[in-house]
Design a protein that fits this description.
4 copies of one chain form a homotetramer.
Chain A: H1 17-25, H2 38-51, E1 56-60, H3 63-74, E2 79-84, H4 88-91, H5 96-101, E3 104-108, H6 117-121, E4 134-141, H7 152-164, E5 168-173, H8 176-183, E6 198-202, E7 212-216, H9 225-231, H10 240-251, H11 254-273, E8 280-281, E9 289-293, H12 296-303, E10 309-312, E11 317-321, H13 328-343
Parallel strand pairs in A: 2-3, 2-4, 4-5, 5-6
Antiparallel strand pairs in A: 1-7, 6-7, 8-9, 9-11, 10-11
Helix pairs in contact in A: 1-10, 2-10, 8-11, 11-13
Chain lengths: 344, 344, 344, 344
């Protein structure tokens, strides 16, 4: 029998009670569908408050949807998109970016999920050469799929370089809040204000039931996005229920609080296993995930009690994710079982 | 100031309280994402009970998603899809079917939203001729976009013909429950059991917050659908919240009750306006919508008080939709205002 | 045993001897591939002479390629393309336009292959409505697939209307030369100069071995076309062999002469069968094709001796095409056999 | 003033005189279009003689077309295609494979353009995991884009492994003849008979004007290819002119002779520059290309007299290709100028 809460993913978590309250509270009467309602209008205004008045935001169902719509808004099918080899768009979306945008993805090998200007530079050739998919978008993930984080300076450096070459910078911010909490920055400081052109802003991994946002640095970039969203099957009819969730997340400080708590639990877990010789952390713990190599016989034993995923079968690396609802008790129970297994 | 409830669309309605209860009741602890949880398993079993043990069902976000995934499961890009000119896939999905499946749509002109075997026959040529997109799917809507309904016999006749030609029959059942309530049939009787191969089964228009299902007549047809769903951006992570809604809808009789009520309200409205000379019904009222021509000066006046949409600008035709939460008072208030406008 | 030359299609014809001479004459030494050679440069200049200095032309393999590249240059995937139901893009390209552009095609029923402003108007709605594929291109065929012809005035009227709505006008000019010869106009007068934005200009049906051109009214419209051409698999490496053919066709008057001869042969055939009661012409003979209803028993007998195609199985309508290499003897032989069959 | 023949690419070469003769010799009368003519039938039979009776071959325009049609025949959009990073499908087709097939390409880094079973193995994971594009095709190039060659044993080993995993093996044989000539094998021995499922067989780089073939190991694999070819814009109307070229190439020994000569010229060039300290060969010379690093100041000087391309700007590497029409005089002239430049 598995525990109530595991470490598989932050999208295994529940819906935050305040978010659930917001959902039920807007369930009154009729509202114009597809975003023409006052709650969606309020949410859109709130996004302007947070990301800047010149930004334009829309809501979609999920992260894959946010990412493929972002790419379509920025690129044509003969373009290419540069990203980390580990990027969600490259390995976790079953080829949705290629299918929906027609673009080629150019993955960059990384150790920590982060890419650098020097690595991007290697793809800056073939402009004007028709045989070559034309580079148009660089996509970075914040926090990365390996739990690491770009500083505002690092993002700015990439943005400046990318813009100097006539490309756009996209950020997959499925866990942007975790990065912001970790850096003690605002959401905008490490995305739009650092030079990001289009941001996929995650909600589901941070306490929502469903719903992600796409934030465009300006309205021009969003010119055709309503058609792209609809044609990409990502337009929800009863939009007030997405908008209300984002309002609950962003109106107070819930977004950062949730993320900070998840980060803290990850740190607590990291501290708790420090010194266990059989366990090797493979990445810095900068947000809400641990990447860990441990003996294979222990992995299976631990998975009998807690949900979590193998990350790299070849080297016996697993991923432990914390969430807004992970408790100190969860961590202690987990570490207790882990130690028992290792010492048995 | 608009009224709380209008007649714009059944997707302007709220979430049914029992559905909302189901949502909040599953918000406990963690659950495996993407459908690996016990609630989704329960919902899948429930669908087998309803549609047949040999069927296979999956959950997606919305109707456009259900339709384009269905087409991709049945056809390759060099195929064509035959449907009514008024079909949602043809006029309300911003070209999503063409973009995601690559298929050509072959629209058939209809007066009442229903297509016939004779009309389908006209497209049964060019097989084996490589210049011609090869017909592979016929798609019908139940209830149709014009509120009319196919009888089980009509569906069976189309299915038999379609299968005799080596094609598949798809049903867009965004309002299947309204058709079932109207015909006093089961959901299965007027879809899978009448010969439908793949069914888009609607939830959002019948009291859900979000979520539609795709029902495959057998597992073979669903062979690759999990990849298609993911690549089409329609895979939800916190799947339990979709599954729980469908369980609430289908476990008792809520699905049919909701639909029956909406149908009744449409009938009540139709009866209330009978005899008003300025108003002409253009379609039979068989489900939960009225299609009505009335003087243009009255339309605007009425829209000042109630939400509803122009259907055909050219001939001054509007659509009035009822929903599970439309009340008798709503109908009476609407008719009262309508009569005042006409008589003023 | 079939005759040397039939009436199946102008693409069953041979390569004109002057075109073949041009091909062999450029087969000397090496030339930069993909159009960087002096022969292609010369051809491009020739196109400017003919269609206007502000135009920009590229070469592709075939008509389907020219059409789908044109659409991609003018529209995005959420757009729609309005055309005659009989248009090559709608019925003879196996869904290539939908697959490669993602666009929806909106076919208009026509009796003679020509569409009118009034018919286009019916599709001029839903602008800004995200559920609706946004109209962006009107595509007309000159001469039409039914052998009829738009006058310069008719084209101008369509172009003016189309432009007033913010759309583009595409012309499928697979048989543009036949139209020009028939109207005694220049190629430009009935295309670019009449308001066409992008023209698919046919070569293969008028004596070339392979090769079509796309003429853009200005360089801006052609901005990304070299990438679109490559990604659509339509970029030929040994381009000099396409360019040389077009030079042979266009430098003298061969293009018009070939077309005029084909048209003349069609007229001769039409005149020869006038008065035969069993034969009914269904279209005006304005270019190089006849559309004819005749008793089914005669069709098969005639097909035993000459190649030609059934056009409409339902009403027993066949198509007889003439080509630049059809001779008076061919016509006479054909008519002789035809009369023998009818009188037997 | 550049020389008549350069070293830019084998597709800068002319058309072989025997191929041109074949073209002109079939230019008689009419022939059924799209491959229904006796010359195409003859060519298809000839392909069966060469590649095996159970194979099925079709003709297309160019190599990009052959490759993207092959991928579409073998894979669905949720699949991935594993290939060398240097593969033509990965770097020289402007994203056509992604756009037309929707598949993800998984490039493998290689030093010599060849991939190994061990490298393929690293991508053999995620089967059944819907977030992951499902591996379905491995594509190798013979001879590779770097001029190297797979032995029959190497191909067989890859084929066996690929088939054991339920994948297909595609070969891009744009220069298959050069590989066959180099290995002294038949065309079939190093492709279909070594386990290749679908072969893109090149003609244009070996003396044709235009035209490539796709050879399917069996008819089942080719089941839908005629529709795919048409929808991918690769169906030529006057097919006899493609078929005649392939007959000329394959009926005698012209295919191998042309390739052998080109290979010999490459070897001669390699031998002529041996011992020049400023020049470093980066790849084995196994077919008709040399990859060479030389001082940048010399590159420009040499390019003033001969066409050839920079291969890798970063490390100052150029590519020198020979062709069937490269003469010993061309080599000597080139080496003479090269030495003068180096010694000046």
């Amino acid at each position: 029998m598995k525990r109530l809460r595991g470490f598989a993913s932050d999208n295994n978590a529940s819906v935050h009670p305040l978010v659930m309250d917001a959902i039920t509270s807007v369930n009154v009467g009729h509202a114009i569908a597809y975003g023409g309602d006052p709650i969606t209008e309020e949410a859109e205004k709130l996004f302007k408050t947070i990301f800047g008045n010149e930004t334009h935001s829309i809501f979609v169902y999920n992260g894959t949807g946010a990412n493929v719509i972002s790419i379509q808004a920025l690129a044509q099918s003969f373009n290419s998109v540069i990203c980390a080899h580990t990027a969600h768009i490259n390995v976790d979306e079953c080829g949705a970016p290629e299918k929906l945008s027609g673009c080629k993805l150019l993955p960059i090998d990384t150790c920590d999920g982060k890419i650098t200007v020097d690595q991007i530079k290697k793809h800056m050739h073939g402009f004007g050469f028709e045989h070559h998919a034309q580079p148009k978008v660089v996509s970075i993930t914040q926090a990365t799929e390996l739990g690491t984080i770009y500083t505002p300076e690092e993002i700015r450096e990439i943005a400046n370089y990318v813009h100097s070459k006539g490309l756009y910078l996209h950020m997959d911010g499925a866990r942007l809040a975790n990065a912001a909490a970790s850096l003690n920055c605002s959401l905008a400081d490490i995305s739009i204000k650092a030079g990001v052109d289009v941001l996929s802003f995650g909600g589901t991994k941070n306490g929502l039931m469903f719903g992600e946002a796409i934030v465009f640095a300006n309205a021009e970039l969003a010119e055709n996005v309503k058609y792209i969203r609809k044609q990409s099957t990502q337009l929800h009819s009863k939009m007030r229920f997405v908008a209300a969730q984002f309002i609950a997340l962003l109106k107070g400080n819930l977004c950062i609080e949730n993320a900070r708590h998840a980060n803290l639990m990850a740190l607590k877990l990291a501290n708790s296993i420090k010194g266990i010789a059989e366990i090797q952390l493979t990445q810095k713990v900068e947000s809400n995930g641990l990447f860990v190599i441990l003996p294979r016989e222990h992995i299976q034993a631990l998975q009998n009690e807690f949900f979590f995923y193998m990350w790299d079968e070849n080297r016996g690396e697993v991923r432990w994710m914390t969430a807004f609802d992970t408790t100190e008790d969860d961590i202690e129970a987990f570490v207790k079982v882990l130690k028992e297994i290792i010492n048995s």
